[in-house]
Specification:
Blueprint: E1 9-12, E2 26-29, E3 43-48, E4 51-56, H1 57-60, H2 66-72, E5 87-89, H3 96-105, H4 112-128, H5 132-204
Parallel strand pairs: 3-5
Antiparallel strand pairs: 1-2, 3-4
Length: about 200
């Protein structure tokens, strides 16, 4: 089909009736010319700082993002400003997929490593795109992560502190004992010297 110049069809299948949407099989062409498909969500491509994402207009206008809802609700001119027919947003796109998933599902699914890595940018994105619910979620997850880390440090450090205290007490006892022995040795030496001095004096007399 590529040799004949015809577009290659790609079948897009939506999941059965769930929170993700209804089942609507539809043919989509790789030249992005979308045919009319009853019930097929309108697919939108967004270029965020050079990274391109695909989602539906329903996701972008569900009200979770004030900026994106206003941008794609039809209130403004609907003109992609990028040569690849994607809407261009001049912002860092490295963490946008996390925000996009939050718009889709209303939940933030990130492991602790990703949260550590992307937290500053995600907080910025939440403010930039006006996703107040994400800001609150990030604050809550940050507090939970810090509390968990504090508890983990306490769990690890408490036995170490007890061991250090125990070693300190033993060292103090050893120093005291050594001091006492040294004092006894000094007294014994002094007594021996006194005794030798008396013996020499008697022998001289």
């Amino acid at each position: 089909q590529e040799e004949s110049g015809e577009a290659t069809p790609i079948t897009c299948i939506h999941l059965p009736h769930t929170r993700l949407g209804n089942f609507h099989p539809c043919i989509v062409f790789d030249d992005m010319e979308m045919p009319d498909c009853p019930g097929q969500p309108e697919i939108i491509r967004i270029n965020v700082g050079g990274l391109v994402f695909a989602t539906t207009r329903d996701t972008l206008t569900n009200g979770r993002s004030q900026m994106l809802t206003a941008m794609f609700s039809g209130a403004y001119a609907d003109c992609p400003s990028h040569p690849d027919s994607a809407y261009f947003i001049d912002n860092d796109g490295t963490s946008f997929h996390f925000l996009l998933n939050f718009l889709r599902h209303g939940e933030l699914h990130m492991n602790e490593s990703d949260l550590d890595k992307h937290l500053p940018q995600l907080k910025h994105d939440a403010l930039y795109y006006g996703v107040d619910e994400l800001t609150a979620t990030l604050d809550a997850q940050s507090r939970t992560m810090m509390e968990r880390r504090t508890m983990e440090r306490t769990r690890v450090l408490e036995p170490m502190e007890h061991s250090i205290d125990s070693l300190g007490r033993k060292l103090e006892q050893s120093i005291d004992s050594l001091g006492q022995k040294l004092e006894q040795s000094c007294q014994s030496i002094e007594e021996s010297i006194d005794s030798l001095g008396r013996m020499e004096f008697v022998s001289m007399v």
